[in-house]
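Explain this record to help learners:
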Amino acid sequence: MRYRLVALAAAAAAIGIGCRAIPAPVDGVLALSPILLPSPGVVAGDTLRDSTGRAAPLRVVAFGLHGEGDTITTVVPTYVVLDPGAHVTPDGYVIGDSVRPSPVRIVATVGTLQTSAANLSVTPLPDSIGPTGATTLATVTWAPTDTTARSAALGATVLATGLVPPQGVQAVIVRYAIVSAPPGFNNAVTGILLGASGTPTTADTTNTSGQVAPTIRVRPAALAVPSAPDSFVVTATASYRGVPLRGSPIRFVVPIKSTVASGSRIR
């Protein structure tokens, strides 16, 4: 009988828990986006800035009961930096305090909800950019059926020359542009810039050595005159506070050459 009473009491407690009302989400917020960083890095002694060079705060999107179509703009997240090297002002601006080899982690909270940690690099002042290797690359030779012909790396390094010795600066966005390309058949695109992951890109972020190394994939089937030697011209530019770094833009030349005899036409 004693065990039966205990079982009945436990069942009654479970029913009570099941019937208890679920607390309403704080300020109507049911979920949070990850922290939206204006840039992957902040310079020590400066404020985090966006791609135009303007100081910009962290952002978090709050979602209500109806999901992604129900954003709430009235909440103010609280940001916490989990590592030394930076701090966040009450209005969400990150200030870099000291250079560190690994990123600082930042979380945001709204009520009882918390985001995953966002990683932000704290770097020395970038002041110049230069080619990592040659600016006239080896000729890309391709066969008529080639779909994987790629150039060597269009390597660039961002430096802080105010340090002794100069140091590569990570988390700097370098923007690439194809400013001249072989003509395409029916104006087709004849070359595509690829990032380190092999996906199309027009910008890359420097690694811990301050380097980026995108490539060009040639599209032989798109060439208007496939058998004629030609070249791509590509520029690479980086900036700080909206001002191009010394050495910008770097100009790369990528020659291409077909294995098809001159005057032939691929069909």
Residues 107 and 116 are 6 Å apart (CA to CA).
